[in-house]
Specification:
This protein is mainly α. The chain is built from 6 helices and 2 strands, in the order ααββαααα. It has a two-stranded antiparallel ribbon. The radius of gyration is 20 Å and the shape is globular. The mean pLDDT is 88.
């Protein structure tokens, strides 16, 4: 029998562990379980969510895989295009540039 490729193996794991939820607290717990299964286990159990997952596992994973952070940022932009609440929230953090301030005063 041929070994499954990574995507197939990942899908088998998700089905086996029933890690289908991606939203809310269950989604976060499932993501932490996935990165723990990949070998990222925070020995201090920072932010313990359940007996088999903690926020520390996710932090260790993100610290070691900057490309994942880039992918998350890309998804934020993609989802933000259709989320006016995110726009409004983010806008409060962005200061006007000097050029924009001068244009407003004219």
């Amino acid at each position: 029998m041929e070994k499954p490729d990574f995507e197939e193996l990942f899908d088998l794991f998700v089905r086996q562990e029933k890690l289908y939820r991606t939203e809310g607290r269950p989604g976060l717990e499932n993501l932490c379980r996935i990165v723990r299964a990949l070998g990222y286990k925070d020995s201090q159990h920072f932010g313990q969510l359940d007996h088999d997952c903690c926020i520390g596992d996710l932090i260790d994973f993100l610290e070691d895989n900057s490309g994942v952070i880039d992918a998350i940022k890309e998804k934020i932009v993609e989802f933000g295009e259709s989320n006016p609440e995110w726009y409004d929230e983010l806008e409060t953090y962005v200061e006007e540039s000097e050029d924009e301030s001068e244009d407003d005063s004219e």
